[in-house]
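Subject: for your reference before the review

Hello V.,

The reviewers asked for a structural picture of the protein, and I figured it would be easier to keep everything in one thread rather than splitting it across files. Below is the amino acid sequence we used in the manuscript, unchanged from the supplementary table.
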Amino acid sequence: MRDAVQDDIIKQFVGLEWLDRYGLLISFAKELKPMDDKFKTEENSISGCQSKVWIRTYREDGKMIINLDSDAMITRGIISLLLKVVNNRSPQDILNLDLYFIEEIGLKSNLSPARADGLASIIRRIREVAEREAN
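And here is what came back from the structure prediction:
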């Protein structure tokens, strides 16, 4: 099933060479609001990432609010895109989401193996939290 947010992300990347895609990722990274340092704890860190990544989640009106941050610009850009797709949805919606934009904008095939593993770890952690919240 197509998702309007993901389709919008895909449109922004269409026709760009990979170097330009990196530039676009960096511009998304600059848009990401930094996480308050008090939440950058070991408990909130996501293991399996090449760079440091932190997650903070809470529920508001039945929707999950997810904050992510990283100490690396490319990673911040990637998580900024991910947040556009998963944030402010119900836990069940997150669990049902097919994150097809990752493949369609070339992230899966153009990231280094370490960054691709990190992205998988971030998605896994988001789904774990959504699973807990859905029950």
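For the response letter, the relevant points are probably these. The helical segments are 4-13, 18-31, 73-86, 91-96, 101-104, 107-110, 113-134. The two ends are 24 Å apart (CA to CA).

Happy to draft the paragraph if you're swamped.

O.
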